[in-house]
Write a structure and sequence with these properties.
The protein has 355 residues and is α/β, with parallel strands linked by helices. The chain folds into two domains: 151 residues, Rossmann fold (3-Layer(aba) Sandwich), CATH 3.40.50.10740; 158 residues, 3-Layer(bba) Sandwich (Glucose Oxidase, domain 1). 28% of the residues lie in helices and 18% in strands. The chain is built from ten helices and 14 strands. It has an eight-stranded mixed beta sheet with strand order 6-14-13-8-9-10-11-7. A hairpin with a 4-residue loop joins β13 and β14. α9 runs parallel beside α10. It is globular, with a radius of gyration of 19 Å. The two termini are 28 Å apart.
Length: 355
């Protein structure tokens, strides 16, 4: 399917109470390793959103078995899209090898059976497959992480899911989380930790590093390491897709250094992607990165964009609430957003789902 920046993205139907949502494992077999953690996410999700969660055929398989069978993981995704009784699909957990499912995917199945599909981290792979198929998908929470949050889900995340997946109204302005954020790691194998809330760091708001006025563009992005793996494949968006796009990036729990981000952006500059963008959104660095070093990431972003590429007016917003820190917002791939540098706001200009 040739890339065409003018093509209209298909929006899935919104989720409603009573819907059936498939829990799918596309990468690491986390549910098989920590079944109680996955069950906690399932229960908290069902209780809050009044839906029914059903696992795909191989979602709970042993991690070693799943690692050996990328075809089975892809089979689950195709079956979930094809099944008319399934209204939405959400990843259980990320990992590092869902790129191996790409040869087994049928984009026609995705295109012809539009429904909510959400995940983040390594799920970037499947989200970009949906983007290539022309379906709006969602960079957002997963069952074993955000929906299984210790001591209950964060209201900021819950509100974003409601607005994005359960309402056909335009999403509108997205405000920064003001209630604190965390990357604290608690052992999932200890059941007592499930009721223990994680420690929060103070939220300092988003950083508007450069740009003026307002810009608009289609949201494209994901986890920076996973996007790096996709370059050179047919699932990497063509140059026309990047015209006026707003690129969103975040780093994984492995905590890649600021220099890695700079090198990635240099590659995008050489590929001709960077000059085509309307703006860049950067999530708060993931992993155990000391907050006092976050400024290093801001520096490499402005160096690569402004100093090296001469894009001094390209808006850059950092420290945002998506990716590998919690709580996180939901970002719809393929939809139009606006960065207003003067009012320091991000808005999603349309609804992400239809009635």
């Amino acid at each position: 399917m040739a890339s065409d920046v003018s093509r209209t993205m298909v929006k899935p139907r919104k989720l409603r109470p009573g819907c059936r949502v498939a829990a799918i494992t596309l990468s690491w077999g986390g549910p098989g390793a920590f079944p109680l953690r996955c069950e906690a996410g399932k229960k908290q999700f069902e209780d809050e959103f009044q839906v029914k969660v059903v696992e795909t055929s191989h979602a709970l398989k042993d991690p070693d078995w799943l690692s050996r069978h990328p075809d089975a993981r892809a089979e689950d995704l195709m079956a979930a899209f094809s099944d008319p009784s399934i209204d939405g699909i959400i990843s259980t957990i990320g990992g590092d090898d869902s790129i191996r499912i790409l040869p087994y995917l049928d984009l026609d199945v995705i295109r012809n059976n539009p429904k909510v599909f959400m995940g983040y981290s390594d799920t970037t792979i499947s989200l970009l497959a949906c983007f290539r198929a022309g379906l709006v998908s969602f960079y957002g929470p997963e069952f074993m992480s955000q929906f299984a949050e210790n001591g209950g889900m964060f209201p900021y995340m819950v509100d974003s899911v409601h607005k994005t997946l359960f309402s056909s109204d335009p999403i509108g302005v997205i405000s920064p989380n003001a209630a604190g954020w965390t990357v604290e790691e608690l052992d999932w194998s200890n059941p007592e930790n499930q009721s223990r809330r994680r420690q929060l760091n103070p939220s300092l708001g988003w950083n508007f590093l450069q740009g003026k006025g307002a810009v608009e563009g289609r949201l494209i992005g994901g986890c920076i390491e996973v996007l790096d793996w996709l370059r050179g494949t047919e699932f990497w968006p063509g140059l026309s897709e990047w015209k006026n796009a707003i690129l969103f990036l975040e780093t994984s729990e492995e905590g890649p250094p600021a220099a890695y981000v700079g090198r990635f952006l240099r590659s995008l500059a050489v590929m001709g992607v960077l000059p085509r963008l309307s703006g860049i959104l950067f999530g708060r660095p993931g992993g155990q990165i000391p907050p006092e070093t976050f400024a290093e990431y801001d520096a490499v972003l402005t160096d690569a964009v402004s100093q090296e590429s001469g894009l001094t007016d390209l808006p850059i917003v950092t420290g945002m609430d998506f990716g590998h820190t919690d709580p996180m917002m939901v970002l719809p791939l393929g939809l139009n957003a606006r960065i207003d540098c003067d009012s320091r706001q991000l808005s999603i200009l349309e609804s992400a789902v239809v009635d």
